[in-house]
Amino acid sequence: MERITGKASILLSIFKRKGGEGLLTKIITDENKADYLQQLTLLEMNEKPLLCFKENELNWLLLTNERVLTAQAGVKIIIPFSELIRIDLALHEEARNGVANLKYFTRLALLDQNGNRYLVSVEKGDPYKGIYQMLHYVASNNSATH
Q1: Which of 66, 67, 123, 134 has its CA 20 to 30 A from that of 5?
Q2: What gap in Å lies between CA 133 and CA 135, rounded to an integer?
């Protein structure tokens, strides 16, 4: 397996410690890379895939050492980590859908430095908690430097 260094190892450590894999959310390894070929074609030079939540080819979330890449109903959104300033639970959207218990939440709201708010879907339970904590770490470090 490729050695993941620096920020990538910190992010994966946070994901494992604060949450973890699920049925549809996996840490990307040499053994399972073939399951994510379409998503991995979007990587830039020297970018390392970390984990992917994949419902199907039209609905997924890929976290790398540099960016958040997501597709919902085939519409892709790419957010560089350097632009993330806040991660929130999507409380209003979950409540509107009748979801009140945090363990059933599947959406996060990402805010970038330009004030854009992006709603991303993730797997409920441990993957949700781990991804939230990973992205919160990224956003906290960014807001501390702005």
Answers
A1: 123
A2: 6
